[in-house]
From TrEMBL:
It comes from the Bacteria. Signal peptide: none annotated. The keyword S-adenosyl-L-methionine applies. The keyword Ribosomal protein does not apply. One of its GO terms (molecular function) is nicotianamine synthase activity. Keywords: S-adenosyl-L-methionine, Transferase. One of its GO terms (biological process) is nicotianamine biosynthetic process. This is Methyltransferase domain-containing protein.
Length: 271
């Protein structure tokens, strides 16, 4: 029972500290560094074997689940604010976006090959954020056309400016319009759903109706302990989709690629 309260205290402490550091950062920009460190600490906690063992034993309890959801809300709000600050740092030439992208390119390159993203691909990225590192890296590494969709208009504007600063303005488009996203979806070869996008079951149902049969849908998510930072995908998809999963304990989110049944086999026969 002591371990239950240790887990509960950890969740509550992270939520409180992240919430306060977000407020401090809005008053003093130097505190964004402290907020970054705290979010990094949360990711380390989330991917540790010890934390995973605690969650496996106590994560089904209602109070643990509720505090996990509160922590996810606090960390998501803080990350969104931090990304806007990082974008402004790039635009003010206080941070080199090209160096930042180079650090991430190795991890993204693995996904590009697995998901078949190449120069002729058209990628709809849902939930790209104010500092759209994944979308930028996909465009730079593959040469694909990427349409970034986000409900936060400030994030849309900042993302567009950062893309131009990175020399990728011709490869990326940004919009806060759902209708524009649906129009692009008609020609999209891939859809990427960010881990911080909520209500994934409803979104997948909409994508299934609107996307072409051959469109690959890549969903980032976090179940179990990883749901304290990411929105989960607790849904059996095997009846409707062919599933390719990337699940690694040390990654802060997991990924699944969904293809309509029969499409994967047809592609294999054409090779």
């Amino acid at each position: 029972m002591k371990q239950k309260y240790a887990l509960l205290l950890a969740l509550q402490s992270f939520e409180y500290e992240i919430h306060r550091l977000k407020a401090y950062s809005e008053e003093c920009s130097e505190c964004y560094e402290l907020l970054q460190h705290k979010l990094d600490a949360l990711c380390s906690f989330m991917t540790s074997d010890e934390s995973e063992a605690l969650w496996g034993e106590w994560g089904h309890r209602e109070e643990i689940r509720l505090h996990g959801e509160k922590l996810r809300s606090a960390s998501n709000q803080a990350l969104c604010r931090l990304e806007k600050y990082q974008s402004c740092q790039v635009l003010e030439q206080k941070m080199n976006v090209s160096e930042y992208l180079s650090i991430l390119s190795a991890n993204v390159r693995q996904e590009l090959g697995m998901f078949g993203m190449e120069s002729t691909s058209r990628i709809l990225f849902i939930g790209s954020g104010a500092f759209p590192v994944s979308a930028l890296t996909m465009a730079r590494e593959s040469g694909a056309e990427v349409f970034c969709l986000d409900t936060d208009e400030e994030a849309v504007a900042l993302g567009q400016r950062v893309a131009e600063k990175a020399g990728l303005g011709s490869k990326l488009m940004f919009s806060g319009s759902y209708e524009s996203g649906i129009i692009f979806l008609e020609k999209a070869t891939h859809v990427v759903v960010a881990s911080l996008v909520g209500n994934k079951p409803q979104l997948l149902a909409e994508l299934k109706d609107a996307a072409r049969a051959e469109t690959k849908i890549i969903v980032r998510y976090g179940n179990g302990l990883k749901s304290i930072f990411n929105f989960p995908l607790e849904l059996d998809l095997s009846d409707e989709w062919e599933i390719t999963s990337i699940v690694e304990s040390k990654r802060i989110y997991d990924t699944v690629m969904l293809q309509r049944r029969g499409i994967k086999e047809a592609e294999a026969m054409q090779r």
